[in-house]
Structures are given as structure tokens and as C-alpha cells.
Amino acid sequence: MHAVRRGQRSIFSVTAAFVAGVMLTLTAFLTMPMVVDLRQACTAAWSAELVPRPPTTATNTTTTPVSTTRTTTSSPLDRDGHPPVLYGHLHMAKTGGTSLNGDLACGFERVCGHKGYSYDAYQLEVRKAAGFSPYANYGRPHSGNYKHAEEDKIGYEDCDFISKEVNWAFWKQFQNWSIPLQLHVPCRKPIDLLMSMCNFRKFRFNCSRPAVAQVDYCSLVVGPSDGGDSQYWFDRWNRALRNATNTFVKCYRFEDQFTRYVPHMRSLLQKKRFPADFKFVKMNRKRKDECIYAPENAGLRASVVKYLLERWDYNQFCYECIGSEDDLFAK
Fold it and tell me: pLDDT of 14-37, one tens digit each?
């Protein structure tokens, strides 16, 4: 009997020792540095996905190196998809700025403008395609025609491209930004631009009457200024912008707007995940030939051009800029 009890105690002692050994081994395994290393490795792997990978080169020397960072053929975008500069479009009246602004807002991120924002451009085009007026039953912020005061409240910090039909002084605020402003100015031939402005005002230019008063009338801003526009459309530009700090002014021909300028900007901005097709809305009315284009009115035409060049900086700027090194598409 005593021998049996001693045997049982011996078995119990061995079992207890075995269990204790297993527990010590398991504890040591769970606290091994390998676990910490695995966690660090996982963290490093996740972090690597948040930063651009370096370019990778194939072993075959004939293969072009491939970069995984987002770039364009003209200007690289940073890790967040932003270009290295802020692009501005000075929307001079009757230079196609409404269609330009709307088209870019439909296809690209962070486009901001009086005639189109990226964030709601898709649904605006859906309403237009359905035959509804963009202004009917929808508030101004969702109509494709934004108030300048509302835009100012929103701010422009999240914009890569800004299109504004506003007094030239608006652009001075970007002089203190951390990135430069590259301001693009469309230039249209003086007489063509003036006649388009007259047409928009439903005004027929009369070549037998004094020209100056008619030119000034056609150049007046139509409708309320909304606190942002000028008295005259031409006052959206001032040559002081050429000397503004942190600002680089470029020009281009109006005729190149949709054949060269739009493709140029498409190469610089970040594409939308869900782009929309822009529906063009015709603004000007049908018109017959204007008398000012008649051969017998060549002298009148020359005097009107001279007045436009002397009266407003915009026309003189375009005369000087087109064909210069500041022309976006100068050969």
C-alpha cells in the first residue's frame, strides 16, 4: 500500500514538472522578439503603400524604366495628385470660358470656377442631358453658375485650376501662397471680341454713328456684378498682374482654346474616377454680317482697334504677348 502511494506521488510530481515545463516554454515562445519583428514588418509593409515607390528598372537594358508614381507628359503630379503650380484661367468675357470651365470640371479633379466645380459637375450634366434647365429647382450652388461670394467663402485651397470672370484684383491674393500661380489669359482679336460682346447685349453696332460710345456700351458688364466683377469686362485684366510676385502670366490665342489649350490642361490635371460628358450650351445669338467688317469701313475698324488698345490694358497685353516667349504655344 505504501509503495503504491509513493508511486502515485512520483507520477504526480513528474506530471506537474512536465506541465510547468510546457508553460515556461509556451511563455517564452509568446514573448520571443520574433513576434515584435513580425508586427514591425507588417507596419512597414502598410507604410510602404502610402508613399511613392522608387522607379524600377527591368534587367533587360532595352526596356524603358517604369515609375509607379503618378506623372504626366508635361508636368508631374505629387503623391496626392496635385500639380506643382496653381493654374489660373482669366475668364475674359466672350472667349469661350464658360465651356472651357465646364468641360474641365466634368473630367478632372479640383477644378474650381464661376462656371463649374469638379465636385458637382457630373450631376449637373445629368440634369442638362435630361432636358432640365440647370437653374430650375436647384439652388445656385448646384446650377453651374456660382456666386463669387459663395466661392470666396468656400476658399480656393483645394483647387488645382481656377477659372474666374472677375475683377483682376482677385488674383493678387495668391502672391503669398506657397506655390506659384501660373495665370493663363485667352486673347481674341479686338474687333471679333467686341462684336461678340455687342451681340451678347443684343446690340447692333451702327457704323454711321460715333464709335466710342458704342464700344463702351458693348464693354459694360451685363447684369449684377455680384460684388466680384468689374464695371467693364476688359477690367478683368490689368498689366499690374505681370509684375505680381509669385505669379507667371501666359497667353494663348482664342482660336487655340479647344484644339490646343484644353488638351494641354488635360495633360496637367488629375483625371476623375467618373468623368462626365460636357453638354455645350450656346450663349450667343444668330447674327448677320456686321457693318464694321465691310471693306469700305476699314478706316473705322482701324480707329476702333486703336481705341481698344489705348482704353484697356487687356488688348495691349494680348498684342504684346501673342508670339512672345510668354505665349503658351509660340513656335
Answer: 445 544 554 444 444 334 433 333
Report which of residues 281 and 300 the model is more confident about.
Answer: 300
- The 10 Å CB-count burial string (b at 16+, else e) for 165-186 is bbbbebbeebeeeeeebbbbbb
pTM of the model: 0.70
- Which residues have a Cβ under 8 Å from the Cβ of 242 and sit 6 or more positions away? 249, 317
Rounded-to-integer distance, Cα 196 and Cα 191, Å: 9
Give the span between the Cα atoms of 156 and 254, in whole angstroms. Answer: 26
What's the grid cell of residue 301?
Answer: 475698324
Q: Output the CA torsion sign for 33, 37, 43, 46.
A: negative
Considering only residues 81 and 88, tell me which one the structure prediction assigns the higher pLDDT.
88
Distance CA 110, CA 80 (A): 12
User: How many residues comprise the chain?
Assistant: 331
SS (H, E, C) the chain: CHHHHHHHHHHHHHHHHHHHHHHHHHHHHHCCHHHHHHHHHHHHHHHHCCCCCCCECCCCCCCCCECCCCCCCCCCCCCCCCCCCEEEEECCCCCCHHHHHHHHHHHECCEEECCCCHHHHHHHHHHHHCCCCCCCCCCHHHCCCCCHHHHHHHCCCCCCEEEECCCHHHHHHHHHCCCCEEEEEEECCHHHHHHHHHHHCCCCCCCCCCHHHHHHHHHECCCCCCCCCCCEHHHHCCHHHHHCCCEEEEEEEHHHHHHHHHHHHHCCCCECCCCCCCCCCCCCCCCCCCHHHCHHHHHHHHHHHHHHHHHCHHHHHHHHHCCCCCECCCC
